[in-house]
Write a structure and sequence with these properties.
The complex is a heterodimer. Chain A has one domain. Helices cover about 75% and strands about 0% of the residues of chain A. Chain A contains 11 helices and no strands. In chain A, about 35% of the residues are buried. By secondary structure, chain B is of the alpha/beta class. Chain B folds into 2 domains: about 210 residues, Rossmann fold, CATH 3.40.50.300; about 70 residues, Alpha-Beta Plaits, CATH 3.30.70. The chains are: A mainly alpha, B alpha/beta.
Chain lengths: ~260, ~325
Amino acid sequence: MLRIYQRLWQVNWAEQWQYRANLVMYLLYWLVSPVVYLAVWTAIASQQGSVNGLTANDFVTYYMTLLIVDQLTSEITIFVAGYRIQDGTLSNELIRPIHPILTNILMYNLAFKALTLMALLPVWLVLGLLFRPDFSSVTLVNVLIALPVIGLGFAISFLFGAALTCVAFWTTRAWALHEFYSALVVLFSGQFVPLTLMPPPIQAVAQYLPFQLFKYIPIQIILGRLDAPAILASYLGGLVWLALAVGLFRAVWSAGVKRYSAVGA
Amino acid sequence: MTQDPVILVDQLSKTYQVSEREGGFAAAVRGFFKRQYRDVPAVQQVSFRIAPGEVVGFLGPNGAGKTTTLKMLSGLLHPTAGRAQVLGYTPWQLKPAYLSVMTLVMGQRNRLSWDIPAADSFLLNQAIYRLSDADYQRTLAELDELLDLGPIMRKPVRNLSLGERMKCELAAGLLHRPQVLFLDEPTIGLDITAQARIRAFLQEYNRRTGATILLTSHYMADVTALCERVIIIHQGQLKYDGGLSELSRRIAPFKLIGVALGEAVHMDLSGYGTLVAGEDEADKHFIQVPAADVTAVTARLLADLPIHDITIADPPIEAVIERAFNA
């Protein structure tokens, strides 16, 4: 099985390397909003001294960590597999003795991540020179503790994204649904602003959703702003959400494939 | 058939539900609230058995249900009714054990990645089908020998010609040495030379591995070269299942007598049989006669006319199959 993943990685990496220009364009597009937030909030915090207790440096370190964490936990499954479901090219993958989503599409996501991270790195360093963040609160231990949460965050986000992609088995509106889902993620994950700046009702709802595992919680752990009980709670919550995501994906996938094969692949 | 069949198809049916509406705005609005569905029977109660090692041609005009049947047998489609077993598996359960021993090659679909050389996709298949290095190298060498893959498998697939790509598609589909091959139009769009190579390859592959092959094709040369047995379906129904040679006898029990007359003789030959248009030889007249009468008619022709050349042949297979569809 390891060999399958290794070869899928090679193929997906080689394929996407061919489209590196597209990748850079995507990255620039994707960078716009966090960099704008970064500039705006830093400016406000510098003028006022702080916003809700967050200093300019808090904002800089938050958004700069977000740039990396967001890359690590986000997924692009619907943009790859959605079309394959609709135009029938998924058929070729369905008759191979491996699960198309949990192998090939997963590796596609990972190869994409690796390439975008490579392109992101110089941009990130330039931003560092411009905003001069003080990362003294970040320790190696913090980063190591955050890694499992990042892993859980990606796993959950990948499975949710895959389950939503499976909606394409029934309807072309899968894309609209995915847009709606992305909006929820932006709102409740801390991508927009640190969650503590959100109105209290949104913060309350966010506690019961998995989305803060995608961004807010790993960022807070890396920046050393979460205590041990809160970290432990996020690990446990992450495992529960992972189990739910696995169940959801399996159910939607098997119903979807049945549907695909009933209406004509 | 004494051996257990490799492919067993029993009363297999597939009906598609197709949504449809009239053109125009009003119809679009009506369609939004209440969809009209129509049942389209693609395959209706088709049954057949195929023994190990057989190469069977699956024929029928466009829309006859050939591809639908192949998709059910490879597991991509759930049937509406009926049963099918291939190597003892129910295909649409998509069991990895089944997917590892069969292949579906579609002439117009690619399982190779477009942007990378076929050789890389082959390596991926080695991993997916869990082939040992030794097995993989041996099979690849054999496929290389039969298909002459050498330089083409190192170029990105998108830079290959259609024929080269088809060779690589076949190789990718056969690396795991499947016991059952479903081939949907494997020679479509290829030139005559490439078609002949693919045909020779399939023949040799079948001889060497004893694989069972079910193939569809619009090129009769594929069928006559490869298949002793043909299954004909039309409008989803089985029309014929049997030997290719018996097909002519049963469906079209007639022969074509070709006569070349000397010195531009213009004679009415319609008294000897039905005159049909000749294909390649302009100076020859073709007379279609019932098979039983061939000897008598030939004798009469030779006695009555100044004949330079005379040939007796089976009617072209296209004509025979055309008649089978309409039977």
